[in-house]
Design a protein that fits this description.
126 residues, mainly alpha, 2 helices, 54% helix
Length: 126
């Protein structure tokens, strides 16, 4: 006596059958109602996607292999302790902040000097 298939398997087959019937009906309706230009555009789009699919599948397979290799390397390698991170701040610039107050008699090396501005009038009388 043969065992009955699971409900999930039967629903999957039914869904696949409905998908195929829907695709065929949609294909017939679309080809009857579209103009020849629109139909050729749709056919070109389908051929372009079909030509691109093997490359995408190959890329997905290679990516999955690489992920598996990395996962194996991580599990095989012993967990090493991270070295402590030391951050050293650079010294402050002279004349900056409360640590180095600028003397009023002495101009700071970082302060821009005042220069007299010169303007040139273009197209006017001299």
């Amino acid at each position: 006596m043969r065992e009955q298939e699971s409900l999930g398997k039967r629903l999957g087959r039914f869904g696949a059958l409905l998908g195929v019937v829907f695709a065929l009906a949609a294909g017939v309706v679309v080809t009857q109602r579209l103009s020849s230009d629109a139909l050729s555009l749709l056919l070109g789009l389908a051929c372009g996607i079909g030509a691109m699919a093997p490359t995408l599948l190959l890329g997905a397979v290679l990516w999955r292999r690489q992920e598996e290799r990395l996962r194996e390397q991580r599990s095989a390698a012993p967990a090493s302790a991270q070295p402590p991170v030391v951050v050293i701040a650079p010294p402050m610039l002279p004349g900056y902040g409360a640590q180095y107050p600028a003397l009023p008699e002495q101009p700071s090396a970082w302060m821009p000097s005042r220069q007299e501005r010169k303007f040139t009038m273009v197209g006017g009388e001299e």
